[in-house]
Amino acid sequence: MSGFRFFSKKKTPGSRVREARYAGSWYNDDPLKLNQQLEEYLQSASGALSRRTAHAKFQEPELNLLKDDGNLLAIVSPHAGYMFSGQTAAFGYSRAQMQEKQFQKIQRVFLLGPSHYTGFEGAALSDATAFQTPLGNLPLDQKTVEALCDFPLFRFMPEVHRKEHSLELQLPLIYKTFGPIEIIPIVIGQIEDEMETRLIGSALKRFLKEDDMVVVSSDFCHVGPRYQYQPFTDNIKENVYRLDKEAFTYINRLDLEGFIDFRERTGATICGFHPLCVLMSMLPDNSGGSVLNYATSQDSLVEDDDNSVSYMAIAFGGQSGKDCRWLPDAEMPESNAPLTSEERKALLMVARESIAAAASKNAQPNNAELKKTFPRFANPRGVFVTLFKKTDNPSNPEERRELRGCIGHIWPVRSLVDAVCENATGAAMRDYRFLPVNADDLDSLEIEISVLTPLKRIATYDEIVIGRDGIVLYKNGSQAVFLPHVAEQFGWNLEQTLTQLSLKAGLAETAWKQGARFDVFQTESFEEHEEG
User: Which residue among 181, 304, 305, 459 has its CA within the 20 to 30 Å range from the CA of 211?
Assistant: First the structure.
């Protein structure tokens, strides 16, 4: 029982401990027996991994990219009762133990899982100070949890956490593997589309550090009358495997669009579908995955022949010889490198094509070839598109045009080229201040594109530089944003800018002075006449 430590379950004054609701039913509530069971699971997994026999079904090279000498970023682990999936789950944590011994000490775990009992949209945060396990309590990184609540789709929902088992089934394994490290537990509810998925993933990436690990709690396909999903009635085990294998190929390629299409096409009942999508949006493009173990409930003596739930332990990280680590978008070199003249011209061209297509009610441009020609166009970026209408013979040359529409988003939730197309169309057709653009308006339009650098958190508002920085203010669940040119346009100094920003957020004019948090960003803006 090496490394096992007992900690008091007694609550400290003012603490809020989320109790272990499923101890004694889904897994053992006796600390000694639970520790012994986990020890046996981990030793068995370690031996199988060393013999390279754990993932015999997934021996295809494209399904096993993660090498033993690569760093570990994330694992996917099942969450059924330990008698069904505990041994499979142990494979992911055994791989994490290997990581700790050879490469890095994991300091913190971001834990994502689905909601089985409560319907809601977005990401549910817990207001607890610690989560209980029979082995000891795991403290929450409360500072990070509170900061996450600033972002869209994140909110405190303690009742969701009190009921949910998907996170709880990972806690004893986390404690056994890493000890009482800090966790950030997040229950993922319904997510409307790919944009919302990337919005949640982008927010989480901002807080990830090199010594963090992400754990996604998910079972795979649930097949049979018990789950009201029967795509086949014979050769259940073989057909379930083919379905799970196809799901993994999309996950491993980080093909979010393909994975979403796979579920719509097959109806595959993967309970952690949304948390898996968030993970895919977070992982670096050069990361790889490996199936460490695969099993189904059919392997258990207590399961019947008509129903099956699949369990996979998957590890994601750097491939052999490649540097792959958690790095916030703001620190990625390509995120801050200026666009070339050719890239600018291509974006302006596709923006005009999108507006013309919308005005004529034609299909929008297909950007697949542009993404191949300009690889950076595939990277998610925040983008604003502003439209101006040229005026005839203005008396003042500085007033040669007037605003005709402006739409955008600060969050990197679309690829650069798709964001330009979407926001160009939005500025032309959906800016409530103006009538939609029609075909006769096209020749009088001028287009300006503003590409945003990733948002960066600052320690104090004194770091803001007027004219250079766009600003996002967060306080008490409210937020507001100004683009960099706004302060200069109105002639505001820093105090006046923050006062107006507070009012825009629906707060008191002095709200910025205390308790507010700030992000800054810069923009790269360019227009058609500048690019020829």
Answer: 459
State the chain's maximal CA–CA distance in angstroms: 87
- CB 423, CB 383: distance < 8 Å: yes
Alpha-carbon span 341 to 243, nearest angstrom? 45
Name every residue whose Cβ is closer than 8 Å to that of residue 323 and which is 6 or more positions away in sequence: none
Token pair of 402, please? 């007037």
CA 39 vs CA 36, 74, 315, 417, 428: distances in Å: 5, 21, 20, 50, 62
Secondary structure (H, E, C), 16-84 = CEECCCCECCCECCCHHHHHHHHHHHHHHHHHHHHCCCCCHHHCCHHHECECCCCCEEEEEECCCCHHH
Cβ burial 164-181 (10 Å sphere, 16+ → b, else e): bbbbbbbbbbbbbbbebb
82 plus 195 within the same structural domain: yes
Per-residue confidence (pLDDT) for residue 50, from 0 to 100: 80
Q: Write down the pLDDT at residue 425.
A: 97
Instruction: Give the pLDDT confidence of 63-87 residue by residue, as tens digits.
Output: 444 444 468 899 999 999 999 999 9
pLDDT, tens digit (0-9, with 9 covering 90-100), for 351-373: 999 999 999 998 898 899 999 99
Residue 222: which of 341, 310, 161 has the closest Cα? 310
Domain range for 407 is 333-450
Q: How many helices (H) and strands (E) does the chain have?
A: 16, 20
Whole-angstrom Cα distance, residue 34 to residue 134? 8
Amino acid 143 reads: K
φ, ψ (nearest 5 deg) of residue 471: -130, 135
Q: Identify which of 260, 326, 250, 327 has the alpha carbon closest to the alpha carbon of residue 289.
A: 250
- CATH number of the domain that residue 83 is part of: 3.40.830.10
pLDDT for res 530:
66
Residue ending a domain, among 258, 291, 320, is 320
The string of pLDDT tens digits covering residues 423-435 is 999 999 999 999 9
Domain count, the chain: 3
CA distance 48 to 40: 12
pLDDT digits (tens, 9 = 90+) for 387-396: 999 887 556 5
Amino acid present at 222: H
pTM, full prediction: 0.84
Of 286, 320, 354, which residue is a domain's last?
320
